[in-house]
Amino acid sequence: MLDRINKAQNMIETACKKLGKQINIMEVCGTHTVSIFRNGIRTILPDNLKLLSGPGCPVCVTDQSYIDNVLQIADNKDCLIATYGDMIRVPGKGGSLETKQTTANVKIVLSSEDALQLAKDNPDKTVVFIAVGFETTTPATAVAIKEAHADSVDNFCVLSGHKLVVPAMKALVSTKNDHIDAFLCPGHVSVIIGYNSYKEIVEDYGRPCVVAGFEPIQIIEGLAEICRQLADGKTKLESVYSAVVTAEGNTIAQKIIEECFEPADGYWRGLGEIEKSTLKIKDKYSKFDALKRFDITETPVEDTSGCQCGEVLCGLIDPPQCKLFGKTCTINTPIGPCMVSSEGACAAWYKYSLKEKP
Amino acid sequence: MCLAIPARIVELEGDKAVVDAMGNRWKAKTTLLPEVKLGDLVLIHAGFAISTIDEEEAKKTWQLIAEINDFNETQNKISG
Question: A102: domain range?
């Protein structure tokens, strides 16, 4: 193991020396962010290699308008909100799901199947499943919608906050942040979409895309492969996580997503509206679409808290550069979702900031 | 949130399975991976098996999950 680490570290150092300029690699996965901080990976990198924590945590990228819509639905006494635990503390208009728990019906679920079961067990309530997540999580929602349709569970519906990783990466290199040199791509999202999905970023935008697992050695080897490609001036698609990630991904899961959802333009925190980047429920299943059931239109809201999570997510600033970080926004009193979520860049930075180089 | 957990299929009937990871057992579905058999190691995310995985890779991920849980517990302690 030590041999592999040394080899990868040497490769990184040699490549960065050869490049002789600042290199920025963005990870697009909350689990990578936590593993990088937890294992002190930033501290062993050369000074001219900087890691940016991109839009890889589903809770963090969820637009404020979505959170406000959830809280508005929660005020309806006939509704029961079924949510993954990650969303419970995210603040919005009038509080959070956590603070509303005393007056609203809110249940934490571990899967879409549990949400559907809640609907079957509570026929007098409309169960609204708060469906956030990238492509890893979407198939589970799609299966629940299909089952609700087949079993006529008409008191079940889904507020889709599902998002697609690749359009966000494209948006970042197109307009928001042209100083991103390469992407370390998410492991388990890639299990579903396959590493060929990043082909366009590599071929049309000239950015290396390397898929890595979550173990420290896999992350370091992924970074080494990226640095080697940059130093050689040869950009290509690569997976150092071949144990579970294939070129095509899980095609059955992809088909189930396609059956229930279609890509639509949608809002991301910090990145604004991105073309065909969110998933809306297809007309065939529209009676399970919470947007239609509650007649909600998605309009972006302005965040007046001063929170700079949006700039953090685009890699434009590091968390300590946010004027709220460590002052009014802490792990005890989180203001933005990147501090609320255990996978958020601000939370990871807050916990490990003393060990990090500035 | 996109982390999938390796687990072994210990019961299987149709697409309904019971899986085991590090002694913890829970229900999962194999709808997205119809070819799996009893005893297979799979990655589970949000109640669904999404990929098969080999023993060595599963062990590495279990180790990582234990570390992340430590991280989260420490965070929870900080936030009281």
Answer: 1-305
Nearest to B78 among A132, A331, A341 (CB): A331
Distance CA A274, CA A170 (A): 9
Contact in structure between A219 and A35 (CB atoms under 8 Å): yes
Pairing of strands B24-29, A261-268: unpaired
Q: Write the DSSP assignment of A150-213 as a string of letters.
A: HTT-TTEEEEEEEB-HHHHHHHIIIII-TT--EEEE-HHHHHHH-GGGGHHHHHHH---EEE--
> Can you read off the two tokens belonging to residue A117?
């079961």
The domain B5-78 having CATH identifier 2.30.30.140: the answer here is yes
The ipTM assigned to this model is 0.88
Closest residue of chain A to B42, computed from CA coordinates = A244
Which pLDDT tens digit goes with each residue over A163-188?
999 999 999 998 755 789 999 999 99
Output the pTM of the full model.
0.92
Residues 49-78 of B with CB under 8 A from A: 50-54, 56-57, 60-61, 63-64, 67-68, 71-72, 74-75, 78
